[in-house]
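Input:
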Amino acid sequence: MHYPEPISKLMESFMKLPGIGPKTAARLAFFVLGMKEDTVLDFAKALVDAKRNLSFCSVCGHITDVDPCQICQDTSRDRSMICVVQDPKDVIAMEKMRDYTGLYHVLQGAISPMDGIGPEDINVPSLLTRLQDEEVKELILATNPTIEGEATAMYISRLVRPSGIRTTRIAHGLPVGGDLEYADEVTLSKALEGRRELS
Amino acid sequence: MHYPEPISKLMESFMKLPGIGPKTAARLAFFVLGMKEDTVLDFAKALVDAKRNLSFCSVCGHITDVDPCQICQDTSRDRSMICVVQDPKDVIAMEKMRDYTGLYHVLQGAISPMDGIGPEDINVPSLLTRLQDEEVKELILATNPTIEGEATAMYISRLVRPSGIRTTRIAHGLPVGGDLEYADEVTLSKALEGRRELS
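Output:
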């Protein structure tokens, strides 16, 4: 006899989440016991609602509770630009910035031959369909600055080139607030390569 | 527009848990979206069940789904010994050891004048009632080796002394597998003080 069954079941559920081991699960489960019943019920409801009511936008692939998503529906946005990102969280990061008013396309991953992920396994075909249908003038490739992200950007760029749509890649360089001394050589080399005239 | 509402609500719920900030909450919430629906429903049910079906044992104060708890109900256990601990998790730790067959008493805290916690705020009165009613011969004080835990053990020991019940305190010393070199001086002093004849 270790934990009473309801608490060990709750611990098992917590342990299915990433980065939560037996000790953290026990701590969280005991914390839940000390929470108000309403708060726990809200938590349970939020879990079920998130799972049941969220899906991927049929246009851009972003996570949404309405289809098409609010961004795709927003008529005030610039429909001539599509920013291609790997993950719904990247859309959130871009939106927090408030500088971008175009549309998005969420790939839900990146091309990775090592993991057997090809262009058909991520949302590349739907991107090509969008480019045929819509009045798109610029495709901003904002995949991650990793090997997979770079390869994906390169692949899409070559695929789109014949259509005459302008394809751009977000800049690589030193992060704002960073320190030259601690920058890795690849970043530094990219920063030097991407240098611009001071006006 | 940042996150769709269902996911931001789920993130808020995760953020109410200890040690979970906005970034971890987002990671967990997105992970939940990728889980099977059944698993998510089980998680939600586990939360509600744990909150609704668990209470504290009316005898020993341990967390339980039946009252009195399974340990108090177990007739094979030695009813002449009560081990006093601060927390239900301490009972679990003791039970994992499998060496102790007596009963428990969970204080749900320790005396701490700094935090305004006196003997009446923790399960000391119910312990005294148990000592009058039952055939208890030994009280093992297994509160934590902290200032509050020591003070609580000392307090209970003085309170119980007139009744003639044997009160013992678990040993302090070097943890097994520990290193003398890295032991703090208080632990080392306790270890020296508690030295025993080798037989």
